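REQUEST ID: PR-0412
SUBMITTED BY: lab tech R.K.
PRIORITY: routine
TASK: structure prediction, single protein chain
INPUT:
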Amino acid sequence: MATRIDPSTNKPGTTVPMPSAGGYLIDSQGAVFYDDTDTNGYYELSSSATAFVSLGKFANTAVASGAGLWVQNGTGKPAEHFTTAGTPDHTVQIKGTLVAGDASAAYAEVQVATSNGGTQPALLRYPIDGSNSTRIALPPKVGGNPQSYLDDPSPIVTSDGFVKIWAIQSDTPQASILLQWTPLP
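STATUS: complete
OUTPUT:
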């Protein structure tokens, strides 16, 4: 069971049955999603709903985005945005691997060329209207190696920026936390 906390009283409110026992919750702005890891089924619980509603089964991990999910079925494949079961609301051609999304764009980690002839990860924003993608950030380097936007914890897209946190382990008992906030175009 999932129990909402009433913000006006800070006490338990409405209780909603979980779709199954084999999954986990994904928080988003506007909805809570449930991923049934046994069936690859995804369910949405909007702020006013009294039950989880199925959005369908997705072969790959979905990325929560407001009241919908972004899904990519393999690196370099299109990203699809679902707010209801069935046909996606939007499909966006992207390169690389989907890492986040919002109501206006999908965000992907792609490999870009470096000045020394190598490659490194970069974060690209792909607008939902199909206009040109924009490189919005490069990850920090630790020990000369770039970090990845694919690492846990997942990035978060806010109304005005993209946020990513990395926990960096070292040989000492103390870990470092790196935080990158990138304004959106």
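NOTES: The mean pLDDT is 90.
REVIEWED BY: pending
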